C-alpha cells in the first residue's frame, strides 16, 4: 500500500489518499506523530492506527468544546460523542477527561440535584429519577440526595403549595389539582396530604370557608 497524497482539507484536517483513493481524514497532531507522508509504503495496521488516533483527537477536542458551554456527566458526554466517533473512542475520551477532573459525576450530580430542587421544586424521588436519566451511578445519586435535610424538603413543599396552589385549595377540585401536580413532581400521597393540611391550618384566614370542609 502506498500513500499517494496527503493534503489539507477545507476543514483543516488532512485527506489521506492511498493507492489513488481517498481513505480518511487525519488530524494534524496524529499525522505528525505517525511520521507518514506522501510517497511512503505502509500497511493497513499503520493506517488504522492513524485513523483511530485521529478520531480520538477529534473526539477530545469536540468534548472540550462542549464543556466550555455546560457541564456534562460522563454518560451524557459519551452519548454526544457517539454521534461523531466510535463508541469505544467516545468512552476513551470520556474516561481521560474524568482522570483529568474535567468530568466529575459526583460534583455534577450534586449541583444538578440542587438546581432541580431550588428552581423546580422537585422531590428527592423525582431528583433521583432525573439523575439516573443522566447516567449517574447509584452511589453518586445517593450522595447528591444526602445534601438535603428533611426539614428543608418539608419547607420546600409547603412553599410550593403556598406560592402556586394556595388559591386552589378552597375546593376539593382545587386540592385534587394541586395533589396531581405535586405527584408529577415526585411527591408521595402522604407528604402531599400532610402539607395540604398544614397550609389549610396556617393560612385559614386567607382561604374561603369551604377550604376547611375536609
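-> sequence recovered:
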Amino acid at each position: 500500500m502506498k500513500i499517494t497524497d496527503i493534503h489539507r482539507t477545507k476543514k483543516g484536517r488532512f485527506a489521506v489518499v492511498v493507492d489513488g483513493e481517498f481513505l480518511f481524514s487525519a488530524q494534524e497532531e496524529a499525522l505528525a506523530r505517525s511520521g507518514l507522508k506522501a510517497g511512503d509504503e505502509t500497511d493497513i495496521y499503520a493506517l488504522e492506527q492513524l485513523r483511530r488516533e485521529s478520531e480520538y483527537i477529534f473526539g477530545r477536542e469536540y468534548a472540550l468544546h462542549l464543556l466550555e458551554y455546560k457541564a456534562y456527566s460522563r454518560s451524557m458526554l459519551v452519548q454526544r460523542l457517539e454521534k461523531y466517533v466510535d463508541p469505544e473512542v467516545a468512552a476513551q475520551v470520556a474516561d481521560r477527561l474524568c482522570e483529568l477532573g474535567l468530568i466529575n459525576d459526583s460534583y455534577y450530580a450534586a449541583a444538578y440535584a440542587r438546581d432541580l430542587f431550588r428552581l423546580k421544586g422537585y422531590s428527592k424521588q423525582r431528583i433521583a429519577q432525573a439523575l439516573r436519566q443522566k447516567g449517574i451511578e447509584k452511589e453518586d445519586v445517593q450522595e447528591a440526595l444526602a445534601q438535603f435535610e428533611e426539614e428543608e424538603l418539608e419547607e420546600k413543599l409547603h412553599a410550593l403549595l403556598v406560592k402556586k396552589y394556595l388559591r386552589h385549595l378552597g375546593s376539593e377540585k382545587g386540592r385534587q389539582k394541586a395533589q396531581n401536580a405535586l405527584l408529577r413532581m415526585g411527591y408521595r400521597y402522604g407528604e402531599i396530604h400532610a402539607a395540604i393540611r398544614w397550609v389549610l391550618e396556617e393560612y385559614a384566614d386567607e382561604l374561603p370557608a369551604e377550604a376547611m370542609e375536609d
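The longest strand covers residues 3-8.
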